[in-house]
Design a protein that fits this description.
Blueprint lengths: L8 H13 L5 E3 L3 H5 L1 H10 L4 E3 L2 H5 L4 E5 L1 H16 L15 E6 H6 L6 H5 L3 E3 L1
Parallel strand pairs: 1-2, 2-3, 4-5
Antiparallel strand pairs: 3-4
């Protein structure tokens, strides 16, 4: 594994260019504020250097990424609304338990798979929550 810092666009471009010159077979892009802010650039760079990439959130795939698997953000917001309701009814925020995501989603971009020359197995397509064609 080779970590790449994504704090600014120039550093990201240099790091990805160096990464693809090495023995890179693919890329895993973790979620976080820096990656989220650079998502369009990350998707464009990965497309420029034909690398299969797995992302933590669906919006990377809608921006041209190959596949994502991660927590369903809409479900997390719905669950957070329940917490707001409980707090407004008098419960103390510090007394509420921390909740882990319970709903995950897989999104696959078949256009990107085709451009990479990849065949996505039917079993993987069947388990996807969304397929972009």
């Amino acid at each position: 594994m080779t970590p790449i810092d994504v704090r600014d666009a120039d550093a990201l471009q240099r790091a990805v260019a160096a990464f693809v010159r090495g023995p890179a077979d693919g890329l895993i892009v973790l979620g976080g504020p820096s990656a989220n802010a650079q998502r369009d650039l990350i998707a464009a760079m990965v497309a420029r250097h034909p690398l299969p990439a797995v992302y933590a959130a669906r919006y990377f795939v809608t921006a041209g990424g190959l596949i994502s698997y991660g927590p369903d953000v809409v479900d997390q917001f719905r669950r957070a609304a329940g917490y707001v309701d409980r707090i407004l009814k008098g419960e103390k925020a510090g007394d509420l338990p921390v909740q882990a995501p319970t709903k995950f989603e897989r999104v696959i971009n078949l256009r990107t798979a085709k451009s990479l020359g990849l065949d996505v197995p039917p079993t993987l397509l069947a388990t996807a929550d969304e397929v972009i064609e």
